[in-house]
């Protein structure tokens, strides 16, 4: 049994949903073949229609600032778009109920926007309630569309199966509770040989209050559901052919990586590869469930990228190169560090207290340099650190991370990497303990030429 997650571009409009239906039909037909070992499924997880979540967040921002007119205009436009997409149901018996659900959701959003425009305060709880609407709507439409086109499906309200912590905006699934809910709600649908359709990104805490898993959380939802069901494979359907050797916006002739290890995929996702949400890998790793990235626009023309615990060895030390802009370097310097027990622990405790993740770390006898990409709490972090050290920051920096299990077997790799970027100023160099990646920190303005050189050096394809 497979779990199939479709991203926003894969449900963006009626044409995209028609492609989704064809893909799910093929998977369903494969599941019911005599030689199939598991006739259940597939389970479908969908994101909001492409771009909808951003627009819903803008509704919250406009309403919170008192601009109710702008919020209402956006809601009117979004309502019309969802009704137009629901036209894929044509004369189906499903259509009246789906259209009524759309109106119900947007009527509620309009009431909420009006209240927020008076209160002038958008709490994380209300922000989640607004942002979750996109997935609730798209999953209801897709479930009805599958049924209307001869694939019996059932809409599953994600808030009934994804049980999470109380951390609005970045809720964490509670696996024990979620597994029980999946067993109670999804298993009966599968037993009836219907296709469950669930909205990703959305959940509810133990009190039933709506939460979200954070941006990109639909991948995480699919992996969690797959782990709870013991899926044989989790498929991520998107608008690219798979994981690529570099950012295609910078490198003109990137290549699809056919096979990745879980470790490689996690590193690439964490350091900037946009195809996969980093947390997606975690439930899959725990259950050793393969993850496959596929292109919903070319379902028959691309083999995609398969991610497994281990992968076949390759002659290339580097599997792919990830990159990320909008990075800030924070330098923490103090002579009190010298031979001081617990100093590093105190520094990182400050970042922990302010819930800010650190990407890259380098140290010397009297200084620590770290990179962060979320600077919202940096003023408070800096103030706390200045009690024990001097603190400076450098903005408009970038990260390049060369990732590959083969790095462990190539003693000359770091030399080759630095040779490739000779003449470009490098701010920091870091190698992970697992020796699976080497990361460079440099000025954002130097990112493109450095990435071009590295890709050409290790993949032999000019940019």
Q: Total helix count? A: 14
Could you give the count of β-strands?
17
Major β-sheet annotation: 8 strands, mixed
Supply the number of structural domains: 2
CATH superfamily of the largest domain: Acetylglutamate kinase-like
SSE topology sketch:
Blueprint: E1 2-6, H1 14-31, E2 43-46, H2 52-64, H3 68-85, H4 95-119, H5 124-131, H6 133-148, E3 153-156, E4 163-164, H7 175-191, E5 195-199, E6 202-205, E7 210-212, H8 217-229, E8 233-238, E9 259-261, H9 262-270, H10 281-287, E10 291-295, E11 305-308, E12 320-333, H11 343-353, E13 361-363, E14 367-372, H12 378-385, E15 390-403, H13 413-420, E16 426-431, E17 437-443, H14 447-459
Parallel strand pairs: 1-2, 1-8, 2-5, 3-5, 4-6, 8-10, 9-11
Antiparallel strand pairs: 6-7, 10-11, 12-14, 12-15, 13-14, 15-17, 16-17
Helix pairs in contact: 2-3, 2-4, 2-5, 3-4, 4-6, 7-8, 8-10
How would you sum up this structure, described in words?
- It is a single chain.
- This protein is of the alpha/beta class and 463 residues long.
- The protein folds into two domains: 2-239, Acetylglutamate kinase-like (Carbamate kinase), CATH 3.40.1160.10; 320-459, 2-Layer Sandwich (VC0802-like), CATH 3.30.2130.10.
- The chain is 40% helix and 21% strand.
- The protein has an eight-stranded mixed beta sheet, sandwiched between helices. A six-stranded antiparallel beta sheet has the order 13-14-12-15-17-16.
- The longest helix has 25 residues, at 95-119.
- It is globular and about 70 Å long.
């Amino acid at each position: 049994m497979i779990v199939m997650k479709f991203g926003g571009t894969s449900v963006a409009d009626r044409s995209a949903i028609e492609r989704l239906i064809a893909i799910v039909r093929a998977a369903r037909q494969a599941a019911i073949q005599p030689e199939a070992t598991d006739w259940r499924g597939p389970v479908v997880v969908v994101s909001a229609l492409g771009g909808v979540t951003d627009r819903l967040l803008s509704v919250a921002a406009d309403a919170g600032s008192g601009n109710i007119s702008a919020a209402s205009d956006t809601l009117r436009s979004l309502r019309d778009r969802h009704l137009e997409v629901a036209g894929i149901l044509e004369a189906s018996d499903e259509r009246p109920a789906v259209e009524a659900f759309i109106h119900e959701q947007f009527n509620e959003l309009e009431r909420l926007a009006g209240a927020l425009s008076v209160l002038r305060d958008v709490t994380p709880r209300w922000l989640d309630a607004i942002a979750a609407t996109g997935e609730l709507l798209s999953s209801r439409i897709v479930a009805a569309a599958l049924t209307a086109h001869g694939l019996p499906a059932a809409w599953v309200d994600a808030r009934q199966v994804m049980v999470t912590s109380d951390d609005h905006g970045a809720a964490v699934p509670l696996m024990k509770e979620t597994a029980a809910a999946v067993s109670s709600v999804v298993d009966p649908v599968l037993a009836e040989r219907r296709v469950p359709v669930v909205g990703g990104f959305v959940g509810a805490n133990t009190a039933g209050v709506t939460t979200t898993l954070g941006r990109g959380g639909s991948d995480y939802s699919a992996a969690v559901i797959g782990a709870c069901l013991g899926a044989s494979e989790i498929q991520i359907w998107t608008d690219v052919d798979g994981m690529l050797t570099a950012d295609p916006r910078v490198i003109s002739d990137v290549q699809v990586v056919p096979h990745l290890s879980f470790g490689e995929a996690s590193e690439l996702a964490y350091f900037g590869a946009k195809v996969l949400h980093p947390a997606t890998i975690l439930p899959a790793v725990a259950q050793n469930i393969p993850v496959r990235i596929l292109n919903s626009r070319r379902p028959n023309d691309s083999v995609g990228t398969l991610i497994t615990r281990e992968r076949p060895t390759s002659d290339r030390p580097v599997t792919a190169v990830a990159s990320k802009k909008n990075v800030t370097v924070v330098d923490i310097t103090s002579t009190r560090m010298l031979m001081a027990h617990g100093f590093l622990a105190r520094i990182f405790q400050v970042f922990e207290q302010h819930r800010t993740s650190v990407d890259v770390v380098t140290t010397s006898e009297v200084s620590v340099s770290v990179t962060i990409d979320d600077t919202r709490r940096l003023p408070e972090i800096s103030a706390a650190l200045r009690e024990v050290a001097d603190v400076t920051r450098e903005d408009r920096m970038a990260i390049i991370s060369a990732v590959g299990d083969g790095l462990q077997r190539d003693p000359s790799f770091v030399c080759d990497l630095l040779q490739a970027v000779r003449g470009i100023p490098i701010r920091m160099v870091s190698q992970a303990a697992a020796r699976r990646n080497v990361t460079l920190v440099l000025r954002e303005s130097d990112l493109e030429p450095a990435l071009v050189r590295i890709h050409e050096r290790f993949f032999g394809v000019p940019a």
